[in-house]
């Protein structure tokens, strides 16, 4: 198979909307999403010489955008001094839904590694999950906590992947609001 080629002149026309929708689904703020897409295009231009052509152009840009989203959350979370967001992504496919966000304690902070702090955070998370609508809570636990595949969840609950990701997004938004109000 011939290696893929970069064509930066067409990025905005071909990928801006897709990347924006991808970003806004993860940061829930249109202005931040626009900034992240711009940063992605800029980083792509800067690192174009490192592009090997193994992945499709869109896949490569999405990988850059994912790192920008991670950096965004690290920045805002390090300002709070509470958590870091990590994303794990299976680059073996182009499909959305193979990545997982986890919120974990900062390994360099003594406060967050305290068993009491972790227990309190765990109780706060469980309390916030219990406030979600039942189906949202179930989907969130299955995908984010248990790590069940998108396909298996959709088959088990009789929903499509779009419904699943809407529920996951709403759950994350509600949980972050709840945790900001009751924990941070």
Report the CATH C-level class of the largest domain: Mainly Alpha
In which range does the helix fraction lie?
Answer: 55-70%
Query: Total number of β-strand segments?
Result: 2
- CATH A-level architecture of the largest domain: Orthogonal Bundle
CA-based shape: globular
Beta-strand portion reads 5-15%
Q: How are the strands of the largest sheet arranged? A: 1-2
Give the biggest sheet.
Answer: 2 strands, antiparallel
Order of helices and strands: HHHEEHHHH
Mean pLDDT: 77
InterPro entries: RNA_pol_sigma-70-like (IPR039425), RNA_pol_sigma-70_dom (IPR014284), RNA_pol_sigma70_r2 (IPR007627), RNA_pol_sigma70_r4_t2 (IPR013249), RNA_pol_sigma_r2 (IPR013325), RNA_pol_sigma_r3/r4-like (IPR013324), WH-like_DNA-bd_sf (IPR036388)
GO biological process, one term: DNA-templated transcription initiation
Protein name: Sigma-70 family RNA polymerase sigma factor
GO molecular function, one term: sigma factor activity
Kindly describe this structure.
One of its GO terms (biological process) is DNA-templated transcription initiation. InterPro entries: RNA_pol_sigma-70-like (IPR039425), RNA_pol_sigma-70_dom (IPR014284), RNA_pol_sigma70_r2 (IPR007627), RNA_pol_sigma70_r4_t2 (IPR013249), RNA_pol_sigma_r2 (IPR013325), RNA_pol_sigma_r3/r4-like (IPR013324), WH-like_DNA-bd_sf (IPR036388). This protein is mainly α and 184 residues long. The chain has 2 domains: 8-87, Rna Polymerase Sigma Factor, Chain: A; 115-183, Arc Repressor Mutant, subunit A, CATH 1.10.10. Helix content is 63%, strand content 7%. It is built from 7 helices and 2 strands. The protein has a two-stranded antiparallel ribbon. Helix 1 crosses helix 2 and helix 2 crosses helix 3 (57-80). Residues 80-113 have low confidence and may be disordered.
């Amino acid at each position: 198979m011939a290696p893929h080629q970069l064509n930066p002149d067409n990025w905005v026309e071909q990928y801006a909307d897709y990347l924006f929708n991808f970003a806004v689904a993860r940061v829930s703020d249109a202005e931040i999403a626009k900034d992240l897409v711009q940063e992605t295009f800029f980083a792509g231009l800067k690192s174009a010489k490192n592009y090997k052509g193994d992945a499709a152009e869109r896949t490569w840009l999405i990988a850059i955008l994912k790192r920008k989203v991670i950096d965004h959350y690290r920045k805002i979370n390090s300002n709070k001094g509470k958590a870091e967001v990590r994303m794990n992504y299976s680059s073996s496919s182009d499909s959305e839904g193979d990545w997982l966000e986890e919120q974990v304690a900062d390994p360099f902070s003594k406060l967050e590694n305290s068993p009491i702090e972790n227990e309190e955070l765990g109780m706060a998370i469980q309390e916030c999950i219990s406030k979600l609508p039942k189906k949202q809570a179930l989907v969130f636990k299955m995908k984010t906590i248990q790590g069940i595949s998108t396909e298996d969840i959709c088959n088990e609950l009789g929903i499509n992947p779009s419904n699943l990701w809407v529920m996951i997004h709403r759950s994350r938004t509600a949980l972050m609001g709840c945790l900001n109000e009751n924990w941070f």
